[in-house]
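Appendix C. Worked example: MOSC domain-containing protein
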Amino acid sequence: MSIEIVGLYTGEPKQVKFGDEDSVTGIYKAPVDGPLWLSFANLQGNDVANTKHHGGEARTLCVYPAEHYAHWNEHFGIELPPGAFGENLTLRGLTEEQVCIGDTYQVGEAVVQVTQARIPCKTIDLKLDVNGLFQQTALQAKSGYFFRTLQEGHIAKDSDVRLLERDLHGVTADFCMHTVYHDKKNADALRKILAVPALADNWRNMLQNLLEAAENPTSG
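Step 2, the predicted output written as structure tokens:
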């Protein structure tokens, strides 16, 4: 499987105006060739505004598959700019159907591990002025995913990306999104995802709540 870095992006939060509302967001990233240092905490020059839903040790790199750009351009009749989804890496050859939670990859000098599918937010729509895009990325399981850093090192736009180890549980990011958005009462599916040790804590908490609800449905 050939994997290519199409774009590498980094950026700090900034204040912007969406309509009449002021907001601070980290979704605006600038393209760079690198090299950038990827630490256990974050990517060099990169930070988030909302630490509850972004960043942290389980989300040091945000990834978006390059293959989806053409799909959304056709679906919405638009022309998305590079880095449209605020990702750090745009990768070709590694979609949500291909990555499993817990898979480890070498990216340049760094070693990273898939921790969760991305739960998109409305900031995507506000940034791009496209109504409903963020919801469709979730419903169609084309929302991207996150890496944690297992080994620090420099990464660059021309870095090689290769699979080091496939997680034995075989739980894809696509399966995770389908379960949460289309099959959240499926206790077996929820348990299957929860069984993956590498799963990010925020997803683990969310799925445990869904599992409790699935196992103890309210009457009438």
